[in-house]
């Protein structure tokens, strides 16, 4: 077998943090993707190549095949896997396999543990053949554009296809659900208690309306949304920011709940506008953009009120505001990315000037469209 599989990153338009507390979130797939390349070999080892986190490792096949027999396969039932037990067992294997494991960075450790977690969960009890797997990504890692979910979706999709020996290029809904569930388990390794919005968007693409504990609503909208994706280059950890908000909620439940409820209203109002724009563009398009812009600005300020902005994000907002454009942080905040809404009628000179100002401040700017396909195989 020799194939590749890719999955998009995402931006959260509305609902970051509030989604953890049961409120509505809207996420949209990005044009930036991760691609996994898997090639079966006749070698007596497996090769893992992760250039984004500077990992290139080989593991002897007989070492893996000895271990794999002590696992049970959960290939079709990732939700039934005894997560903690399976994770601890995988961690012990990974530590014993890579002698320099303790010197690896957190990103390297997480990536390797996730790979073997899915690997043993899918192939458990069955000897495997030699293969090479590499992951290449357009996404910045740890910046809030869902690199971990797009990595996890590619990982799950690649190993499931390898295990089943399938060569279908179309992935049906049930297969996507299975991929998304495996990816969710990986997200638990990376994030602790993820809401599930990232793996759902990376799997299904387009626009996902998400509310914890409910089936995600997958909307195949014809989005015509252009944004500037601004990388502040300030690294942050989702888990740390999520814990910070949890602490604030614990100390001030009534106040923080009101903020979360306001975020919920914003997400629902924005969704109505996007649905209307996608279906028939009824009404005044400029007024709709103005309304979306207000919602973006309000959402950002609410996020700042719960302590997840950053001076770099505020600096992006100051520039966007100077050029009359709305801007919000996306994802966990504390650095990472901001998104600037570009109205359909925007003057290109304004966009160019803003892009230059942001670049002069040391930020990286990508002018991109939102929407686009979820996980896809290529043969
Ligand atoms: N291309 C990749 N190669 C290897 N590991 C990756 C890749 N992309 C993401 N990861 C893993 O995902 C983790 C990033 O998760 P996270 O901090 O949530 O960032 P993001 O917000 O971009 O998803 C990294 O620590 C790393 O283990
Ligand atoms: C803060 C949170 O709502 C979004 C995290 O987004 P990101 O992984 O930083 O893009 C956490 C979550 O939904 O699991």
UniProtKB/TrEMBL annotation:
Any one Pfam family match given in the protein's UniProt record, by short name: GHMP_kinases_C
Q: Which domain of life is it from?
A: Eukaryota
State its Enzyme Commission number(s): 2.7.1.36
- Domain spans labelled GHMP kinase C-terminal: 282-358
Keyword list (alphabetical) reads: ATP-binding, Cytoplasm, Kinase, Lipid biosynthesis, Lipid metabolism, Magnesium, Metal-binding, Nucleotide-binding, Steroid biosynthesis, Steroid metabolism, Sterol biosynthesis, Sterol metabolism, Transferase
Q: Which GO terms describe its biological process?
A: cholesterol biosynthetic process; isopentenyl diphosphate biosynthetic process, mevalonate pathway
Which part of the chain is the GHMP kinase N-terminal domain?
Answer: 124-203
The EC class name is transferase
GO molecular-function terms, A-Z: ATP binding; metal ion binding; mevalonate kinase activity
Cellular compartments annotated: Cytoplasm
Recorded catalytic reaction(s): these are: (R)-mevalonate + ATP = (R)-5-phosphomevalonate + ADP + H(+)
In what pathway does it function?
Isoprenoid biosynthesis; isopentenyl diphosphate biosynthesis via mevalonate pathway; isopentenyl diphosphate from (R)-mevalonate: step 1/3
A single GO CC term, please?
A: cytosol
What the record says about family reads: Belongs to the GHMP kinase family. Mevalonate kinase subfamily.
Q: What is this protein called?
A: Mevalonate kinase
Organism whose genome encodes this protein: Pieris macdunnoughi
Top-down, what is the taxonomic lineage of the species of origin? Eukaryota, Metazoa, Ecdysozoa, Arthropoda, Hexapoda
